[in-house]
Amino acid sequence: MTRRELDAGGPVIVGAGLAGLSCAIEFAPAHCLVLSAGAISAGTSTGWAQGGLAAAVGADDSPALHAADTMAAGAGLCDEATVAAITAAAPHAVDWLAGQGVRWDRHPDGSVKLGLEGAHQRRRIVHAGGDGTGAELLRAVVERARTLRSITLWEHARATRIVVEDGRVTGVEADTPAGAVLLRTPAVVLATGGVGGLFSHTTNPLGSRGQGLALAFRAGAVLRDLELVQFHPTALDVALDPMPLVSEAVRGEGAILVDERGERVLADPLAARDVVSRAAWARLRAGHRVFLDARRAPGATFAELFPSIAATARAAGLDPARDLLPVRPAAHYHMGGVLVDADGRSTVSGLFAAGEVASTGLHGANRLASNSLLEAVVCGRRVARTLAVGRPAGPTPRRPGPIDRPAGPVAPDRRGDGLRWIRDTVSEGVGVLRDGEGLRRTLAALGDLAVAGGEATTPTARDDAALVGYLIALAALQRTESRGGHTRTDFPGTDTAPAHTLLSQASLERASATPAGVPA
User: Domain containing 256: what range?
Assistant: First the structure.
């Protein structure tokens, strides 16, 4: 297949969610090109976020308290300096987003309304459109990006490989509706989101399968703490895939978890998500069902407070003000990712990462509710400022225009065949509760595909999924303890000295050299 080669005219940002577009907007008026694997405004976790954005803007709050809550939830693996910097930047992030057109929910006096979520000491969750916060943020940054001449947006353009020469990024290959393209650039920013689509039960878009992790890993970057997956305890269990999320904010307004007998699943409904997920999972494994009881609180005000959730429940024949809502844990957020420094630089020169795909040190072993949108906007803008400082002086090269699309519909991509089997395999071995035997089975099952994808000229979606699933299982096998979003039934205790798991290409080579991935 013929491949065109173009000069990108600036950095290439892979991903068009909040992190990627915040980076592009902040980089203006300098030029950049944004690749979106699907249509702009679709298929990104940003648009599905219900919980809001955490920021210490209340009179009784402070960034120090926000930082303390973040550190406590992170179970010993947060980077204290990173936590302090991002929580300190949160109030300004709220103002910056308002400047981009975000319509925050406000009281009549103009102050923002503040919600409460699990493991927060204060009401500090800022919403826009109630439980439609993510959709409102995405609307605003997409509209803003479309107004800036400095930003070129390519839709239906899937990055397939980062080109590295002499240890530095020199380009990125992409499949586009007009064919394969090599975009020459000295800087690539990964903003591709998480890994939830690798699991059978997830609240994420099914396209969120860790593609950015696969790109970074094959480019030689170090990945950190991939085993740390946060399972949201209250996904609506009504036979939909992906599963609709019932925001943690619902429990913040008084709803409780019960089983079919009416017995509470746990005493503290606002415990950290990993605690709630394990309790719910244990009740399910014991043969019970789990429900969210919102009949008493928020009760009659449910639809007003959570219109999107109420509409989803009604579509399934349920009224949250009168009916118990069946729920179960589902893969929701990935704390692990591409290891980056405070400015978003990976271990490969010219490769950056922001948002869920990055491991910044903010979330540690367990993300505090609503810190993800905060991290996306703060770190996306920070990467842009880093790129601006490093941008060489001189004339800007000619930029490619919008991608030329052939007449008629784009042919569907059939290379994802086998993804259901991968999702089932990953869920079985690397779900809420894990053990060494199950992890080794996962490595053995995915090993051939994981290795073969690295040898392919153009890795397919299935290759990427197999590789990332394999790496998550490999990291989980290496962490011989239970901490935050990682629970080993064969290692239920927590080590006294917190440590990170690091994976590189050498890790895969060592693991693939043994029959079961890693020796017992």
Answer: 232-330
Q: How far, rounded to the nearest angstrom, does the alpha carbon of residue 22 sit from its chain's CA centroid? A: 15
Helix (H) or strand (E) run with residue 179 in it: strand 179-184
Secondary structure E strands in 53-96: 53-54
415 closest CA partner among 469, 451, 450, 464: 464
More confidently predicted of 234 and 118: 234
Which pLDDT score is estimated for 414? 36
Assess if residue 89 is contained within a domain. yes
- Catalytic, 314? Answer no
pLDDT band of residue 394 (cuts 50, 70, 90) is: very low
Same domain, 160 and 297: no
Final residue of a domain: which of 390, 410, 428? 390
pLDDT of residue 359: 98
Q: 233 near 276, Cβ under 8 Å? A: yes
Catalytic residue among 158, 251, 273, 483: 273
For the question of whether the overall pTM of this predicted structure is more than 0.85, the answer is yes
d(CA 95, CA 91): 7
pLDDT of residue 117: 82
Q: Which residue has the tokens 């170090």?
A: 222
Q: 317-329 pLDDT, tens per residue?
A: 999 999 999 999 9
Contact in structure between 281 and 274 (CB atoms under 8 Å): no
DSSP letter string, 103-116:
---B-TTSPBPEE-
**374 with 316, same domain?**
no
